[in-house]
Design brief:
alpha+beta; 9-stranded mixed β-sheet; 5-stranded mixed β-sheet; elongated
């Protein structure tokens, strides 16, 4: 369990992109081996230490203990404040008791969020104190404003104190005695009514619903609130316990300015008296609160809310710190974006693209990396609906004041607004990547090498943004060197006059693509062809179909533009070749169709081939063929591939020889015709099992040796 929290273990988490990404899969093995060996090494070290201690004489051990520095005293949860005088009893209203029960038992999904709510309330109180000091004529110096959390695991206590505005007796009754009565919300309304110029102050106030305080009842046996209004002589103590219908209020002495809440935790909530647990929760939810948060005297919110600052004011070091904080990556980000807008929604955000894709290293599917905040407080980590799934590699923070949150502040209520938020952010992120590609194509190709698969996923699934995403695609091309790639826009700019189609071919490599019989006619015509080395490109481009007003088609399914007989793309006349006459070609193709039977729908001659004897057309693509082999499709009776249309080159020497052999040696000619068909199927990359050819090849070799 302890190892699970070490950096060594986090190295292998799905969101971690540590130094493993900078290595090849082979190079990563030694590092992984070290991680796996960590428990054994650690245990051996501990064992060696224990043995050394056993050997040490008793007096040496005593001397060593005397030299050890003594522990610093822990901050006390209970300070000088204490209730004095007569207690006044107040009853919660009936509806308040009902709502209190809901808040304490079923409103929140996670009990840990009570820390978030109390820190948020404390931050609001500090903001009010700062605003009051700035706008009053008293000249009061509020000093250093902060939130202080102390815990005591021995007595199972949790306390949080802010030196903010504080509350009078009447305000304690008004704000704590009535649920959903939010002093923060009233303050925002007051600021909005008094002056439009106070909107920035109002936007820093976190609390909106007035129920956050009562989340403390989920984990407490008793809740005590000591508060003293700034400028007041007296403090007061408010006390209540879950399950009771009342609360008490009395004067208190020794109360500092601000508010202090002390929770006597329940036995099953002892985890919240652990300092490390509280630090973890504060770091998770309240890292970006605008005031220092101290846990037992240690500041835990060191990272700044960069998305609230001007982009020009943010240093690379600050970006690096924030990125590593939210992504758990050890590398620097590849790209960064600060995006703010107030229309159609108020959005303040920051996004980062990592350098490496950990999914490529078998780390599993990456969780969404964008976190949803409202007024600097975490609402939802790894939010799934902020960006589409294909952008799951992006890390970032989205902070919006327009979000209609549920009363628990754990989810959004307005799904239409969520869709609008996703639409705005998605369009901006696509434009961001397009801008980065324009600035530095080489750096973008490094990015595309890692995350091109996610871009393609977007093209195939996000029809609303399909054309914009298509601008991010990159492919090798017959018009570019092997080491370079091109994009659709560059292809369109190089098109021949009158050309209205972007051509591509699916192949495993450039060599395979350029040796394909389908490519011959396009090469002869001088037409650019994109090389797609991944089978899923067939699905991506099949879904895309168009780029702007240009069609996108595979050269396997379209006829190449015709050129005058015996001319190439340069208009030069080529040497005439021996060819079958139209009558001879018709007789040969009729014979081949009869010999091949149901495997073909038609056999015809073609002029599109240059160096190959035959190709097939009107065939299923590779993806469709593989789907047919799946058991689910076989059960539906669609496991048989469609028959082929065979196109024969009447100028090829093999075809000329076959025409003669069909009469002089019909048995061998039939074997050759079947092999020509299978060769054409292999050229199309869709032969299901090459082993079916082996007996025929044996017969052909035997026939060749018998001559």
């Amino acid at each position: 369990a302890a190892l699970g929290r070490t950096p060594a273990a986090r190295l292998l988490s799905s969101r971690t992109r540590a130094s493993i990404p900078s290595l090849s899969p082979t190079g990563a093995q030694p590092l992984i081996a070290k991680v796996r060996n960590f428990p054994r090494v650690g245990l051996r070290m501990l064992s060696d230490t224990s043995k050394a201690e056993e050997k040490k004489p008793e007096e040496e051990q005593e001397a060593a203990k005397a030299e050890e520095p003594s522990e610093e005293p822990k901050p006390s949860v209970r300070g000088s404040e204490q209730a004095v005088g007569e207690e006044s009893n107040f009853e919660f209203k009936t509806e308040t008791r009902q709502l209190l029960d809901i808040v304490a038992h079923s409103l929140y999904h996670d009990r840990e969020v009570f820390v978030r709510e109390l820190v948020s309330n404390a931050s609001d109180a500090l903001e009010k104190a700062r605003h009051t000091a700035l706008t009053s004529n008293s000249g009061e110096d509020v000093g250093e404003l902060n939130v202080t959390i102390t815990v005591d695991p021995t007595d199972n206590l949790f306390a949080i104190h802010d030196n903010g505005i504080g509350m009078t007796k009447e305000e304690l009754v008004e704000n704590l005695g009535t649920i959903a009565r939010s002093g923060s919300k009233a303050f925002i309304n007051q600021m909005s009514e008094s002056s439009a110029g106070q909107s920035d102050i109002a936007s820093n106030i976190i609390g909106k619903f007035g129920v956050g305080f009562y989340s403390a009842f989920m984990v407490s046996e008793k809740v005590s609130v000591f508060s003293r209004k700034r400028g007041a002589d007296k403090g007061h103590c408010w006390t209540s316990s879950p399950g009771t219908d009342n609360y008490t209020l009395s004067e208190a002495e020794g109360v500092e300015f601000g508010t202090k809440i002390i929770l006597q935790l329940r036995a099953d909530a002892k985890e919240f008296s652990s300092l490390s647990r509280i630090e973890e929760i504060v770091t998770k939810y309240s890292t970006f609160v605008g005031f220092p948060v101290l846990c037992n005297g240690k500041k835990v919110n060191e990272v700044q809310a960069l998305w609230l600052k001007s982009e020009k004011e943010i240093s690379d070091e600050e970006h690096s710190m924030l990125y590593k904080h939210i992504s758990q990556d050890w590398e620097e980000p590849q790209y960064k974006l600060v995006y703010k807008t107030d229309a159609p929604l108020d959005i303040k955000s920051v996004f980062y693209a990592p350098k490496l894709n950990m999914e490529k290293f078998g780390m599993g599917k990456t969780d969404p990396g964008v976190h949803l905040y409202s007024r600097r407080v975490l609402i939802q980590s790894n939010a799934k609906n902020i960006l589409p799934e294909y952008f799951r590699f992006v890390s970032g923070i989205v902070d919006s004041e327009d979000l209609p949150l549920s009363i628990s502040r754990e989810s959004m209520q307005d799904q239409k607004l969520l869709v609008k938020l996703q639409t705005v952010l998605t369009k901006r992120l696509i434009r961001w990547l397009e801008d980065e590609a324009k600035k530095d194509e080489k750096a973008y190709m490094d990015f595309y090498g890692n995350f091109g698969i996610q871009v393609k996923m977007g093209v195939a699934s996000d029809f609303a943004n399909q054309q914009a995403l298509a601008k991010l695609l990159r492919f090798p091309s017959s018009a570019a060197p092997d080491s370079e790639s091109t994009n659709f826009q560059a292809y369109v700019e190089r098109m021949k006059e009158g050309q209205d189609t972007i051509y591509y071919i699916i192949a495993s490599s450039r060599q395979v693509a350029e040796s394909s019989p389908y490519y011959e006619a396009f090469k002869r015509a001088g037409l650019e062809v994109l090389y797609c080395y991944n089978e899923h490109d067939e699905i991506v481009l099949g879904n895309l179909q168009k780029f702007g007003d240009k069609q996108i088609k595979s050269i396997e399914v379209v006829e190449p533009p015709s050129l005058p007989n015996n001319e190439n793309a340069d208009g030069k006349e080529e040497e005439a070749k021996e060819a079958l006459s139209e009558e001879q070609g018709k007789k040969l193709t009729d014979w081949m169709q009869d010999a091949l039977g149901s495997r073909v729908t038609e056999v015809v001659t073609t002029s599109r081939l240059v160096d190959s004897p035959a190709i097939i057309s009107e065939h299923d693509n590779v993806i469709t063929r593989r789907m047919m082999q799946m058991q689910e499709f076989k059960q539906l009776g669609v496991d048989k591939p469609a028959a082929y249309k065979l196109l024969v080159n009447p100028t090829h020497p093999l075809v000329l020889a076959l025409d003669k052999a069909r009469e002089s040696n019909p048995d061998t000619a039939k074997l050759v015709a079947e092999q020509i068909l299978d060769n054409a199927v292999i050229s199309a990359g869709i032969l299901d099992d090459v082993r079916i050819m082996l007996p025929r090849l044996t017969d052909l070799m035997k026939a060749a040796l018998d001559k």
